[in-house]
Design brief:
It is a single chain. The chain has a domain at 57-175: Roll (Transcriptional Co-activator pc4, Chain A), CATH 2.30.31. It is built from three helices and nine strands, in the order βββββαββββαα. The chain has helices at residues 108-114, 159-172, 184-193; strands spanning 5-7, 57-69, 72-83, 89-95, 101-107, 119-121, 124-128, 141-146, 153-158. Strands 1, 2, 3, 4, 5, 6, 7, 8 and 9 form a nine-stranded antiparallel sheet that branches. The radius of gyration is 18 Å and the shape is globular. The model is unreliable at 1-52 (pLDDT under 50).
């Protein structure tokens, strides 16, 4: 089993100190290949008042499983990302080949609520996995359905990995405050400029 690799919330680029280059976040920590989750780290850019700058993004590498039948799963790497610029959305990037990914955009609330109860509508639905069904490998897990009808994909993810990502996203934008981070003027301007 691989552990998730999390990138901590990032400060905005225009507030980064100019005296030193930004510190890159490592993609793997020593010991992570042995099942130990790396500790999330955060870069903070001090403001004029000395406080930490606002965090604007976070992400986490996770392992999902494509459920292909009763007791049959194919594991694959995926990445969850969240940005302050799109405060209601989480992006799930699923690696489908050596150089190919498919990105699904889902509601952060749908992901959060889906850890405890069925959540979502249409092409994205999330629910806790039954204890005797997929994911009964000693880990609590959730089932994520992407798509509809015969072409829908059923994925299983570990609840703990998803919960850690949601905690990172809450450091970027606390749940319930998303509306404070919308740039309505920029949205209207962009809509007016499109043909």
């Amino acid at each position: 089993m691989t552990s998730p690799q999390a990138s901590a919330p990032q400060p905005p680029a225009d507030r980064a100190p100019s005296a030193r280059p930004p510190r890159p976040h490592p993609r793997a920590e020593p010991g992570s290949e042995r099942g130990h989750a790396p500790a999330p780290t955060a870069d903070h850019a001090p403001t004029a008042e000395g406080d930490s700058a606002a965090r604007v993004a976070c992400g986490a590498e996770i392992r999902l499983h494509l459920v292909t039948g009763p007791g049959t799963e194919i594991p694959f790497p995926a990445r969850l990302t969240y940005t302050q610029a799109d405060p209601y959305a989480v992006r799930l990037q699923c690696r489908t080949g050596p150089a190919a990914t498919v990105t699904w955009v889902l509601s952060r609330d749908t992901l959060r609520h889906g850890l405890d109860r069925p959540s979502g509508l249409g092409d994205v639905r999330i629910r806790p996995a039954p204890s005797s069904g997929p994911g009964a490998h000693g880990q609590e897990s959730v089932l994520i359905t992407l798509g509809s009808g015969r072409d829908a994909a059923l994925l299983r993810g570990e609840t703990a990995q998803l919960q850690r990502f949601l905690e990172l996203s809450a450091a970027v934008v606390p749940p319930g405050t998303e509306h404070r981070h919308l740039d309505i003027d920029a949205l209207i301007s962009r809509l007016r400029s499109e043909p």
